[in-house]
Structure formats: structure tokens, C-alpha cells
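Morning. Coffee machine broken again, so started the prediction first thing and wrote up yesterday's gels while waiting. Chain of 154 residues, entered below exactly as on the submission form.
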Amino acid sequence: MALMAGAAKASRRLPRVPNADRPRDDETILKRSGADLQNGWLSRHGELYATDDRLVFVPTILDTIMRAKRREIPLDDILEVERFPRSPGDMPEGGRRPRLLLHTSECVYEFMVGDLDAWIDSLERIYQRRVKAGKPHEPTFTREGYVNVLLDDA
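Came back before lunch.
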């Protein structure tokens, strides 16, 4: 975790919380795609939604029957958005899939999405919109060897 020197490493165990609300009618969905949420050795399948204020993971019906919960991560709680592996050209050891790591003070959420760098680009853009709207919190973005020319200020 590249977040804060000397900070305790956040747990990868998901907190025990009640089901989150599905995306509400008053929320604008800014990005949505299929995703797997890693929970220890178990991965839950479902859909990940990004709105103006939170990320929402909604498991599939089958995973819900198997006691998977809807999860929400308020954007203000995210301290770091990390790409694993950090560079698109690197492959994780042991045949693991590349993943999106969202660090909060409580835990690290591991999402496997098919369009990993597009998700990170979208989160960067969502935080830029939030700053313009007067919500100054921005997490650290950790990745290397990738530039989206559409977001580049050059």
C-alpha cells in the first residue's frame, strides 16, 4: 500500500454491514459494468455502479442467494485508487487477474473489472467533477505506464 508512510496496512476482509441500497432513482449513474468483488478466497459476481457520491456493488441473483451483500463505498471514504499490477504491461503472479484496489480506512476493496483502466479513468474524472462542485476530497491514484490522451492536459 503506497498510501501513507508508517500507516497500518488496511485489511482486505470486508466489513460486516447490512445490504446497501441499490442505485436510487435520484442518483445519476456515471459508469456501470460487470465486476467481481474479491472477499478473501471467495469472489462475488455482480455489477459495479459509479454515481456522483458512491460506488455500489450489486451481486448477481445467484450470489445473493449464497448470502452476498450489496456494498456501497462513499467516494469521500476512498483514500487511494490503485491498479494492480501498477503497469498494464505487468502480469500478477500466480495467474491472478489484474484488479482495482480501493483503499479506505476500514479495508481494501478488490474489484476485478474487464475495463480496468477505463474504470480508473472514470474515477479520476468523477473526482474532478466533484472538486468543481465544491467537494474537495480526492484520493491518491496509483498506477504507472498508462496515459489516457483524452484526460491528458498536454
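Residues 1-8 have pLDDT under 50 and may be disordered. Going to sketch it on the whiteboard this afternoon.
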